[in-house]
Amino acid sequence: MKKLSLSLFLFCLMAAAATAQTNLEKNAAFTGAKATQKKYHAIYQLDNNDPKVIEKTLRNLNNALTDPRLEGKIEIELIAFAGGTEAYLKGSKYENDLKALAEKGVIIAQCNNTLRERKISRDQLYDFIAVVPSGNGELIIRQAEGWAIVKP
């Protein structure tokens, strides 16, 4: 009986090791999800004025735009509110990056509630920035439409 238990234990141990090796090989061979849909939609939320967060957000956007699985299949919006608004103010160091995204078809939008609350006039923003009634409303509507919400 003890020999049978030991044999069964060793068999189970070897099976587990073989399964683990197979899983490791599967993992190493994985190349990412397949983009099988005709169109993808993502809205990026920018509500922080920390330069590291803004730069990460812009980098993430560009990474999505250059992902070969998504090329020609993705629509992206960048919505700024609260502290994120500072990236859109004339004179910010992000003008060229934002303009380049807009030229690639990214919707660059600003929350009007934030403008009102912070007493920022429309002409203080870059002229290529769109203004929407509220950033939260934009996120809610886009999510209901099936858009992925990304908050870097």
Summarize the structure.
By secondary structure, this protein is an alpha/beta fold.
Description:
By secondary structure, this protein is α/β, with parallel strands linked by helices. The chain folds into two domains: 1-30; 40-150, Hypothetical Protein Ychn, Chain: A. Helix content is 45%, strand content 16%. The protein has five helices and five strands, in the order H-E-H-E-H-E-H-E-H-E. It has helices at residues 2-29, 51-66, 95-103, 112-117, 135-144; strands spanning 40-46, 74-80, 107-111, 130-132, 148-150. The protein has a five-stranded parallel sheet, with helices on both faces. Strand 3, helix 4 (112-117) and strand 4 (130-132) form a beta-alpha-beta unit. 20% of the residues are buried. The model has no long low-confidence stretch (mean pLDDT 92).
Descriptive labels:
5-stranded parallel β-sheet, Hypothetical Protein Ychn, Chain: A, 5 helices, 152 residues, 5 strands, alpha/beta, 2 domains
Strand order of the largest sheet: 4-3-2-1-5
Unreliably modeled segments: none
**Tally of helical segments:** 5
Q: What would the average pLDDT be, to the nearest integer?
A: 92
Number of extended strands: 5
Largest sheet composition = 5 strands, parallel
- Rounded to the nearest angstrom, the distance between the terminal CA atoms is 59 Å
Shape: elongated
CATH fold type of the largest domain: Hypothetical Protein Ychn, Chain: A
Strand content: 15-25%
Provide the CATH architecture of the largest domain.
Answer: 3-Layer(aba) Sandwich
Number of domains: 2
The name of the CATH superfamily of the largest domain reads: DsrEFH-like
* CATH uppermost class of the largest domain: Alpha Beta
Q: Nearest-angstrom radius of gyration?
A: 24 Å
